[in-house]
Amino acid sequence: MNFAEEVEERINNMAKPPGSLGIWEKQIRKVFLAWGHFEKKLNPVHLIFAADNGVVRSGIVQQLPEITYMQSKHMVEGSAAVSCFCRCNDIPWQVVDVGIDHEEAVGINYKVARGTKDFSVEPAMTKEELNKALRAGQNMVYWAKKKGYNFLSFGEMGIGNTTTSAAVLTAIAPPNAAFLVGYGSAQGNYSQVLQKREIVSKGIKRYAPQIHTAADAIRYVGGFDLAALCGAMLACREHQLPFYIDGFITAVALACAVQLNPEVRNYSLPSHMSRESGMGMALRMAGIDEYEVPIHAEMALGEGTGAVLASVILRSVLYAVTNMATLSSINREAEAVAQEKSRSIINKEK
Ligand SMILES: O=C(O)c1ccc[n+]([C@@H]2O[C@H](COP(=O)([O-])O)[C@@H](O)[C@H]2O)c1
Ligand SMILES: Cc1cc2nc[nH]c2cc1C
């Protein structure tokens, strides 16, 4: 029996109706196949990549850009939504500063620059900066592997990053896909969406001759967080580490990573269906259908909040796979009970 068959047998032999754990069952199967062996416990770590985006200077956000710095600090201190979710569930987390616009680094210091350039004026980053951010993501995955974590989840923080993500997605998606731009953290502000669409369309037109790969798209219209996430996802494939993506931004990073190496697909799991308008397309570009997404909760917070919540459930599912009675043992027990019953009926009749 090869390992894939062993996984099938193990899951099908759980004491439950076949397939009744739905998407969770499919996800745990994928996790085993990614590891290439069975593990008894999910030992996850959550990584949040934080950076600022120069395109905010074009007026495409409702929030103050300084929130990137403040909220990243809250994440380190444990008072952001994602760190509360992590602490409440004993999941360790790390904030990685890949380009926050502040002299002081927040969390682990991989600061490439103090934010990207405004892509509506000039390319978001240089080739060297792109490589530095990709490497930051890769290094964090090496670190996680060395520490013995066997599962990762990814999040991000960066005011303006729904615009950079929509721009990167528009660059790598079929033509005229500017509808991929959504509200971001300005729910309901439609005039802002129109302005974001304009900026994205113009940016893509301007750099079209230079954008040939997903890495080019990140370089010209993306962000350091997207680059680091993409580098991290490529490294997960190398180290056989399965991972959860979160919402729109991480889904775009995955779409880029899958374009650069289609095998990344085998290590990636969707966690929740962000309400950001480009989410479905980003997933499809990564080879994932909406019906494969376990949590549909109209979330659009980022930080990896949906990914951490999914990790909590997946950890419970793996615990069940390891500790639940098997179908064969329950069938044996049921047979013994049935025999005992028929024996007592015969005895009574005597
Ligand atoms: O993950 C998502 O789908 C998502 C959707 C909307 C907003 N966000 C978060 O909000 C910030 C980006 O929103 P914006 O409007 O500044 O582009 C960024 O810090 C993200 O973590 C995240
Ligand atoms: C307060 C706040 C928290 C966030 N967390 C992720 N993106 C965010 C955007 C804002 C505005």
Describe this structure in words.
There is one protein chain. With 350 residues, the chain is an alpha/beta fold. The chain has a single domain (40-323), classed as Rossmann fold (3-Layer(aba) Sandwich). Helix content is 51%, strand content 8%. The chain is built from 13 helices and 6 strands. The chain has helices at residues 3-12, 22-35, 67-77, 81-88, 127-146, 161-172, 190-207, 214-221, 224-238, 248-260, 279-285, 305-323, 327-349, and strands spanning 44-51, 93-99, 108-109, 151-157, 243-244, 268-269. The protein has a 6-stranded parallel sheet, with helices on both faces. Helix 10 links the parallel strand 5 and strand 6. Helix 5 (127-146) packs across helix 9 (224-238) and helix 6 (161-172) packs parallel to helix 10. The longest helix is centred in the C-terminal third of the chain and has 23 residues, at 327-349. 5,6-dimethylbenzimidazole binds next to helix 3.
